[in-house]
Amino acid sequence: MHHGKVSPEIAQGLLALKQRIAAAKIPSSKLDETLNLATWNIRELGKTRRTQPAVHYLAEILGQFDLIGIVELRDDLTDLGRVLKILGPYWRAVYSDMIPDAGGNRERLAFIYDKRAVVFNGLAAEANAPRKKKGFEYLPEQSFWRAPYLASFRAGNFDFTVLSAHIRWGDNTEARRAELEMLADWIEAKRREKHNEDKDLMVMGDFNILSRTSVLFKAITKHGLEIPKALLGAHGTNLAKDKRYDQILHYPIYPEEFANVGGALDFFVSEAHIAELFPEGMTKEKFTYQLSDHLPLWMQIRTDMDEHELEQLIRG
Questions:
Q1: What is the pTM of this model?
Q2: Separation between Cα atoms, residue 161 and residue 121, nearest integer Å
Q3: What span, in angstroms and rounded, lies between the C-alpha atoms of 75 and 138?
């Protein structure tokens, strides 16, 4: 981390933030053995310019992980660049293009990663909605508001693909359910491709699902995606921690890939603690535009896959 010579106010804020990070009990990752994976909806990153303290706080939070899927990155990448500069020279980003209409909201999806811990394998693509031939054209019957984004990585001897999504919001729950179901179908088809890049697929992002008992959760898990055991007891990822908007999901092919640690990193605590980070005073609403209205959801993955590979060789 390269915070540099910061003001006494920022230094004090970073110390307070470090205490909140410590409370999350995120274990250090070990090169070629474990990987700390996270998903974080950073509210409109790139639309509302972050203050200098906020940029340092965002970098400090992101730096606890090795690979992070970022939701709500906007078309202006200036603030992302400021954050990456503080994270240091080993950090990289790969991101989608923005969509200018109201549904797309000028948003991008991104993965940022520490190249000392994880290597980008080459695949970076948006998920295209299924098409059918109509006359001379191939057209989708339904579309994603914001196309999910996937990329392939390698950590240790573990190759995997991560897909990140930001599902539509609004009052029409049925439209959201249909989009989640279409995404579930797309993921299942991708997993079954003969020449699929990697069978190990992580699915994460902001699915705008209120709880695991809703029809929306049933839609995204219709083909067997599951919450890793480490996250079953995790609280919600909104600041009140009572909504499960954000998810990390997987197909339980090798459940032992996942260390039994994970959760939400609470950088907010409560409105009474805002002044510890921003001593000039700030409303909760303004705070969400400086840090976020979502908490990062994280878990640790085991990346030493030697035993699995040897077992596969024995089985032929």
A1: 0.93
A2: 9
A3: 29
Domain boundaries, the chain: 8-315
pLDDT at 157: 86
Distance CA 289, CA 228 (A): 30
Topology of domain 8-315 in CATH is: Deoxyribonuclease I; Chain A (3.60.10)
Tokens 């999806």 belong to 109
Q: Which segments of the chain have a pLDDT < 70?
A: 197-199, 254-258, 305-316
CB neighbourhood size of 152 (10 A): 19
Edge-to-edge order in the sheet of strand 201-206: 119-126, 149-155, 158-166, 201-206, 246-250
